[in-house]
Write a structure and sequence with these properties.
Elements (H helix, E strand, L loop, with lengths): L7 H4 L3 E2 L41 H12 L8 E3 H22 L8 H13 L1 H7 L5 H8 L4 H13 L8 E7 L2 E10 L9 H4 L3 H20 L4 H21 L3 H4 L7 E4 H7 L5 H7 L7 E4 L2 H13 L2 H16 L5 H15 L7 H12 L1 H12 L2 H24 L5 H12 L2 E5 L17 H18 L20 E3 L4 E5 L14 H18 L20 H19 L2 E3 L2 E2 L6 H18 L3 H4 L9 H12 L2 E3 L1 H10 L5 H9 L3 H6 L20
Parallel strand pairs: 4-6, 7-9
Antiparallel strand pairs: 1-8, 2-12, 3-4, 5-6, 8-9, 10-11
Helix pairs in contact: 3-4, 3-17, 4-17, 6-15, 7-15, 9-10, 9-16, 10-14, 10-15, 17-18, 19-20, 19-22, 19-24, 22-24, 22-26, 24-28
The structure holds zinc ion (ZN).
Length: 690
């Protein structure tokens, strides 16, 4: 799920709290302590390392014993608060799906028939085994018959529109960021399989190991479908060379963060002259796109390079590449030799030791593909409406507090402040689950056809996505399913969204004191709000339009503060000599810093915030910062850590914990942090943005 996620194309532009690439889970999960609520220690000293000095390493001080006592389960690549909640949700989904799939006689096309039968098809290992690679034989045959360049391009479009994969480049319908009520066809860069262009272009030992594992994966799948050893090895080189050419043409992730640079509007006829070998008047109808004369292209140079590559590469090589797209797109849904090869490759990237049990993978797959059907049962069973009421109150408190902070900013002019406040007031807030559910109308799920179900789901998604062309943007839609342990800000909708899954301890608990809830979910709310004003989000105005509303002077002052944050994070290493990329993670780091500041200021308005009464040995301020650290407690495998540095816009958890607090005076006071302590920053070096 992590590597070849074409679904992400639709979610592009959403700024999430955490990159939730948790591999799915199994037997060795830690038990939730069975204590009655009023005795529960929300900040439990047993999880801390009292031998560490808070001013030297706050993450270790707050989480040291927890990390030591909770090794990463073999089926995980990292483990912490997010992972534990995700595991609990997986168990809940599994129990829902087991019930539903065993209840006979659900009317065809009903919610329960579809989620139950999708799950049943996913755990039916006997049927999956028996079919071998039959489900993709028609695709392999179709590709084998291609005999010219038009055939190559048409097949690429076919694979995209039929849920097989996304060869050559990515495309889909999304908001026009300069006219956010309008849907438009977006052309993205693509063509590769490894998670980042650096996986092709770098030459260090770690990268070489990944490349070798990837080629081995290609060889294995070709051999499994009847190709000779020699030809399979040759195919691996051909595919790797083609994908490396795509990687070279791609912009880096840092460059892709620039919303203006990646906004390139073309008349279709002008795009045609840039790409003479792609006949758009024929291709657009194949893409089910009608009546569009204007498109958006994130990286025009990529398309120019792709066009040249199409012309210079032999058709036979393209057939190999397209065959590979079929193989890799389906491997995990085929019989065990394919599935094992797919896992072997993914574990080379992530360090995951064993695969999660099939029933857990199937439960998460239903959540990932029919999330708003399964989510209806989930929220009915597990979401308390009172949680929504509490959240609404908390969001309002934080909104008000952020407004006061904006008004009080020393570096911003009154003119820009007024616009910032207007944007803040215009935030849409979504909590728990959608008001209007996606019902996946017309999507058929067959209990006996797992591979076919996955195809039909992807195909349905594609068709739904392109059906939005010509219609106004539907702002009721959600980018995450209700059980998701995450949150996001959408700049083009100017909305903050909190799925039901994150409204649980350690983020939130009805019985916890305010310090715990403000340090946890309060900081998450503040984080998402700050995304509206981070280096990307600040470029969108109150109605979500990509339009500059800043005075030049204020923008310069913002940038110089943001540069300080870039420099702070560039200094951190994660594994070996691999450094955090301060530019890639800037938006998230700004959101963490701003979120913690606004949550702290809002907490100080509560009764507990005014008091000095200790609970379980900690003052209210100490509990606030310890709660923040508890949310981020986590450890990860070195392979996953190295990969995330390339692809994840979030900093590693220990720095998400430690870096923002060093900029907040109250933390120094709460833990008596003094010059000489390792994390100490002189007051003039503490960065204040929001
Ligand atoms: Zn974020």
């Amino acid at each position: 799920m992590m590597m070849f996620n074409t679904k992400n194309f639709m979610l592009m532009g959403l700024l999430c709290l955490s990159a939730g690439a948790f591999a799915q889970n199994g037997k060795d999960k830690p038990k939730t302590p069975n204590v009655s609520l009023n005795l529960k220690k929300y900040i439990d000293p047993a999880n801390m390392d009292p031998s560490a000095k808070p001013g030297d390493d706050f993450f270790e001080y707050a989480n040291g014993a927890w990390v030591k006592n909770n090794p990463i389960p073999a089926k995980e690549t990292r483990w912490g608060s997010f992972g534990i909640l995700h595991q609990e949700n997986t168990d809940r989904l599994k129990s829902i799906l087991t019930d539903v799939s065993k209840t006979p006689g659900q009317p065809k096309g009903s919610l329960k028939q579809r989620v139950g039968d999708l799950y049943a098809s996913g755990i039916d290992s006997v049927a999956i085994e028996k079919r071998g690679y039959d489900p993709i034989k028609p695709d392999l045959e179709r590709v084998s018959k291609i005999n010219n360049l038009d055939g190559v391009v048409n097949e690429a479009i076919y694979e995209r529109t039929h849920g097989i994969g996304s060869p050559l480049f990515g495309f889909g319908v999304g908001q026009d960021s300069k006219h956010p009520t309008v849907n438009i066809l977006n052309f993205g860069q693509g063509g590769t399989s490894l998670p980042d262009r650096d996986n092709y272009l770098k030459n260090d030992e770690r990268t070489k190991k990944i490349q070798a594992a990837y080629k081995n994966y290609i060889v294995t799948l070709f051999k499994l479908t009847g190709t000779s050893d020699a030809d399979a090895a040759k195919n691996a080189e051909t595919i790797f060379n083609i994908e490396t050419a795509f990687a070279k043409a791609q912009l880096s992730r840092v460059a892709m963060r620039d919303p203006n640079k990646t906004y390139n509007k073309f008349a279709v006829k002008d795009f045609q002259s840039l790409t003479p070998h792609l006949k758009w008047d024929e291709l657009l109808p194949l893409m089910e796109v009608k009546g569009q004369d204007t498109i958006l292209v994130s990286n025009p140079a990529f398309y120019k390079a792709t066009d040249a590559l199409l012309a210079s590469t032999p058709v036979d090589d393209w057939k190999t590449y397209l065959t590979w797209n079929v193989l890799k797109g389906s491997a995990s849904s085929l019989s065990s030799p394919f599935e094992k090869a797919s896992f072997a490759f993914s574990s080379a990237l992530s360090g995951q030791k064993v695969q999660a049990p099939r029933d857990e993978r199937a439960a998460n797959l239903v959540d990932g593909s029919l999330g708003e059907l399964l989510g209806q049962i989930y929220v009915e069973k597990y979401f308390k409406p009172a949680a929504k009421e509490y959240m609404v109150k908390l969001v309002n408190n934080l909104k008000e507090t952020l407004g006061e902070r904006i008004q009080g900013l020393s570096w911003m002019s009154a003119e820009t402040k007024a616009r910032a406040l207007k944007k803040l007031a215009a935030f849409t807030v979504k909590i728990g689950y959608p008001d209007k559910w996606q019902n996946y109308d017309g999507l058929e799920i067959d209990r006996n056809d797992y591979a076919g179900n996955l195809r039909r789901i992807s195909e349905w998604r594609y068709n739904y996505n392109v059906s939005q062309l010509g219609k106004p943007v539907d702002k009721t839609r959600w980018g995450m399913s209700p059980p998701t342990v995450n949150a996001y800000y959408s700049p083009t909708n100017n909305e903050i969204v909190f799925p039901a899954g994150i409204l649980q301890f350690p983020f939130f608990d009805f019985n916890a004191d305010d310090a715990v809830n403000y340090g946890g979910i309060g900081s998450v709310i503040g984080h998402e709000m700050t995304h509206g004003f981070d280096d990307q989000g600040r470029q969108y105005d109150a109605d979500g339009t990509l339009r500059d509303w800043w005075t030049k002077d204020d923008a310069d002052k913002f940038k110089s503060r943001a540069d300080q944050v870039v420099n702070q994070y560039n200094k951190f290493t994660v594994v070996d000599t691999i450094h955090v990329n301060g530019k890639l993670t800037l938006g998230e780091n700004l959101a963490d810093l701003g979120g913690l500041n606004v949550a702290y200021a809002a907490f100080k308005k509560t009764k507990e915030g005014h008091s000095n009464q200790k609970i379980d040995g900690f003052t209210p301020d100490q509990r606030f910062f310890l709660s923040w650290a508890q949310v981020w407690r986590s450890s990860q495998r070195p392979e996953a850590a190295a990969q995330r540095i390339l692809t994840d816009p979030h900093s590693p958890e220990q720095y998400r914990t430690n870096a923002p607090i060093t900029n907040i005076d109250a933390w120094y006071k709460a833990f008596n942090v003094k010059p000489g302590d390792k994390m100490y920053k002189k007051p003039e070096d503490r960065t204040k943005v929001w």
